[in-house]
Amino acid sequence: MKTLKGQNIYLRALEPEDLEFIHTIENDESIWEISNTQTPYSKFLIKQYLDHAHKDIFEVKQLRLVISSFNNEALGMIDLFDFDFKNRRAGVGILVKEPEDRLKGYGKEALKLLIDYSFKHLDLHQLYCNISEGNDASIKLFSNQGFKNIGLKKEWNYVNGSFKNEYLFQLINN
Fold first, then answer.
1. Locate the N-acetyltransferase domain: which residues (predicted)?
2. Residues 1-23: what's their mean pLDDT?
3. 19 occurs within a structural domain
């Protein structure tokens, strides 16, 4: 689909071959904070998830896509979650897996592709994201794509023995 193809990356549907990639991401404790994960996932559960990944966003209220290079290397994932068709909004989450692949523009390009897809093809009115205070890279990424910081949720997430604040960012399609 041309809509999900950029200059350096493209977004694609999940495939059964993504099992190891997703298993590695979901079990990386260093990123559990951004995904609100507290326990590891088995390959069995991820395989079950992949078996149902083909279902329509209108049914499962989520769309998870792989950020892929043109040589078919999986670089990360980008999600629409809490898809609310009635109110025409969804949350956005993004992760570029390897630190050496970050700050190369892949996340920026993936986010731009997802925004365009969400507004043009899903007819959404708004997107939002939740970003932990101190996650400057994500704050910059979303701000540069037009998301506005509309609020601070005080002591929202309990992480490593203390509470952390979380920002709510929003992008409205005008």
1. 9-170
2. 85
3. yes
pTM of the model: 0.87
Query: Both tokens of residue 140?
Result: 């910059």
Q: Is the pLDDT at 1 greater than 60, yes or no?
A: no
For residue 129, the model assigns a pLDDT of 97
Burial class (CB in 10 A: 0-12, 13-18, 19+), 122: middle
Query: DSSP labels for 36-86?
Result: T--S---HHHHHHHHHTTTS-HHHHS-EEEEEEETT--EEEEEEEEEEETT
What is the number of domains present in the chain?
Answer: 1
In a domain, 150, yes or no: no
What gap in Å lies between CA 174 and CA 20, rounded to an integer? 40
CATH of the domain at 56: 3.40.630.30
